[in-house]
What we know:
CATH topology: Tetracycline Repressor, domain 2
Structural class: mainly alpha
Largest sheet: none
Number of domains: 1
Oligomer: single chain
CATH superfamily: Tetracycline Repressor, domain 2
Distance between the termini: 70 Å
CATH architecture: Orthogonal Bundle
Shape: elongated
Radius of gyration: 20 Å
Helix content: over 70%
Number of strands: 0
Order of helices and strands: HHHHHHHHH
Low-confidence stretches: 198-204
Amino acid sequence: xxxxxxxxxxxxxxxxxxxxxxxxxxxxxxxxxxxxxxxxxxxxxxxxxxxxxxxxxxxxxxxxxxxxxxxxxxxxxxxxxxxxxxxxxxxxxxxxxxxxxxxxxxxxxxxxxxxxxxxxxxxxxxxxxxxxxxxxxxxxxxxxxxxxxxxxxxxxxxxxxxxxxxxxxxxxxxxxxxxxxxxxxxxxxxxxxxxxxxxxxxxx
Length: 204
């Protein structure tokens, strides 16, 4: 029986994510993941019975990383409009400038088209992100700064938009500039406000 080092399962998942993001999921073997984590292949198989299990674990690393970044952005301000802006800016920034995460998430989405477990994993993450966006939009509504009848629908639209940006970044790398990022952030905010009957400071 292999010696079970503390946190080895998490370290293997992180090693897998790093390699998958760098070289693509199909371009990485389990031997390479084990080598990067500094363990034998037998030790890897003690923790993960198949490559798919390791893919799902790597996906969880990706999800946790995104959520940690999002929480940091939200904690930086108490103003719900600024929280929306910061959350959207984070999303666009990752789509445009974090090529490894873009590669990994795109490949994961593709695998999910044919694998129900991977699809369920991505769908669950999607729901948590959509609920996060919907929550800050609802907070802006509650504060009288937006009038949006269905914050969740607005959040789903936001997610669909940055998935499109992610795909454009893969095939049109010329858009991956700070100027384009800033323009996309402003366009999103303008569109959000155009949907909203913005209340005057004194209310109605």
